Amino acid sequence: MRNGIDQSRLISVGVVGLGTIAQVAHLPNLVDLSNRFRVVAVADLSAQLAEEISKRLPGPVRATTDWRDLCTDPAIDALLLLTPGDHSSMAADGLSAGKHVFAEKPLCYTVAEAATLGKQSRAAGLVLQVGYMKMHEAVLAKAREALGTIGDLRSVRVIVRHPSDESQLRDAGIVRFDDVDAVVPPSSQAADQTRVALGEVPEEYGRLYRDVLHGSLIHELSLLRAVLGHLPQSIESATAWPIDQLTSLNGGPPCVSAEGIFAADARFQIDWLWTPDQPTYYEQLEIVGTAGSIELRLPPPYATKRTAELVVDNSDGINRIDGGTDSAFNRELRAFHEAVSSGTPGLDAEGVGEDVAWLQRLTTRLALDRAVTVSSEAGSS
């Protein structure tokens, strides 16, 4: 026992969705954490993939194509929802079945759904954790400590250079089968949630909101909350370009840039750049104060054994802090185990609501470029 947490408790889990993030990150870490977790069942639309993954895990592991089977399995304590797209309906069903839930981002596309799921998890006394692995980087505690040494805040900047998944996963050995369609269209619930979030906007803005903002940029918001405690106060300008990549339904995603006020006398700038042919992913958070600066370099998302690096420049000189070998993916699963073992419900569902509201405001600003009106939740926020 440590701080009331039973570290030896073995939590039985069912894994839903066996694609890239499951194979690269979560399944290897579940095996690595076999003193905390036991995978008893896996589910995927591909029967061949589910069967193959079940054979590769320490067994016995049951394989199914119907994830709802895992909800009714009394041997399962918790669900890991690792499918693409929003997880609000699945999370609600899992919680209703009495299962703790770890859901990859995005949890949902509306503020209302985030609030409902947070309330449901708390009422049931169940953990609902979102896959914001960047919040679990080992050096973040040192970054927060360093904030008190750099004076008054002046600038917060985030830059992401995002290559294609193909360029990042060439040597990852992802297992795939062709017994299901390779491309699954957004669910009707995702489309409905998008309408609640944005109103009746052109489909390219719905895709931008779901695929780019919730699919990637939302990680930068969770990182800002983890280090600085809150999100930028206002968005003064934002743009998405090239325009043909914004309007095309078949091309790659557009780049996105936004700037405005972070807090008081501090500005912010976020640049998310689609760089499909670059060989490496790049992500940095820079925080500048009147007496120093903090630079946080994040690892590529699929480099699951690498950790963030921190550089603090203040009156004590330049201090470089390495995150060591304790990966954020591993740490977030350990945090999930601790939350379940200690009976701490509703982990970060409130933060999700803040992120969703901010992305809706960003979409509203982006839409101004083409005189598109965004309404519903975003229009009233």
Explained architecture:
With 381 residues, the protein is of the alpha/beta class. It has two domains: 11-134, NAD(P)-binding Rossmann-like Domain (Rossmann fold); 138-327 and 347-380, Dihydrodipicolinate Reductase, domain 2, CATH 3.30.360.10. Helix content is 37%, strand content 24%. It contains 13 helices and 14 strands. The protein has helices at 20-32, 47-56, 68-71, 88-96, 111-124, 140-146, 165-168, 188-198, 203-228, 243-247, 328-342, 349-367, 376-380, and strands spanning 11-16, 37-43, 62-64, 78-81, 100-104, 128-131, 153-162, 234-241, 255-263, 266-274, 282-289, 292-297, 309-314, 317-322. The strands form two sheets. It has an eight-stranded mixed beta sheet with strand order 8-9-10-7-11-12-13-14. Strands 3-2-1-4-5-6 form a six-stranded parallel beta sheet, with helices on both faces. Strand 5 (100-104), helix 5 and strand 6 (128-131) form a beta-alpha-beta unit. Helix 4 runs parallel beside helix 5, helix 5 (111-124) packs antiparallel against helix 12 and helix 9 packs across helix 12. The model has no long low-confidence stretch (mean pLDDT 92).
